[in-house]
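Good morning N.,

You mentioned wanting to compare the apo and holo forms, so I went ahead and generated the holo version with guanine. This is what I fed in:
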Amino acid sequence: MTVLLKAAPIVEKHTKILKQKTTSLSLKNVVPCLKIVLVGNDPASKIYTRNKKRLSEKINASCEIIVLNEDISESDFVNKLRKLVENVKVHGILVQLPLPKHLKNVDIHKIIPPEKDVDGFHSQNLGRLMEGHFEDSFVPCTPKGIMTLLDFYGYNVMGEHVVIIGRSLIVGKPLAALMTHHHATVTLCHSRTQNLEYLTKEADIIVTAIGRPKFLTRKHLSLTKIPIIIDVGINSLPNKKLCGDVDFEDIIDWGMATAITPVPGGVGPLTILSLAENLLIAAERSIYEMES
Ligand code: GUN
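and this is what came out, ligand included:
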């Protein structure tokens, strides 16, 4: 039987802990404050940002989604970010990706400093991740959420062969670094990888993060290794239903996976949970900065 790795019990458990933390922060007159910048009308981004706001409010943090016009000029966009950076009451700033084409070359992290980069994408935060030093940095939310998920369900990656499909800066690359830090043996695959099936058949854990609906099927699995499958993809089908990068029904029917994350209800909510965790870390650190 393939175990379903659902996010709900993890989110429930951690939400309680985060609520307690916001209560202790409020005793020090600090309300964790997140600003989410959303440019344009991308339907998926609207849903993600709404879910981020919902969890922030559930833990009694403040969260505002700042919606900017799709055709905002580069200078207006940059000025908007600068204003948020200058506000000492703002602990975390997140620019929802993807951005419209004309803003793609704006180096957001030359504007948002590492201490407010709750996404963990600033080169200083990514550098810290490569070094394995986390005390003054932020770990990107999806990789962090995946580690939380594996930990909750009692899976240790030490010595395991993890095959990651997708080399994005949001998921694949930081996850490879984080897994390596936790002593996994990592193979990072992408669109140019040759003989992908040979690699996935050798995996103890497969992570798909490529944005291709139902890409991973039984043909990627062997009859000897029975892997854990983590599906990061959230794709909408023509019938408006969501599906992952994994052909969930095919894998379940095949019965040769130890465990699998559902879509929706798997990795997605853990990314949001990690964001809330990073926000509270940012707010806690701001107190030390004020005192020092
Ligand atoms: N778009 C998809 N995932 C993410 C994420 O984790 N952070 C941001 N900022 N945008 C995203």
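DSSP finds ten helices and eleven strands in the chain.

Happy to go through it together on a call whenever suits you.

Best,
F.
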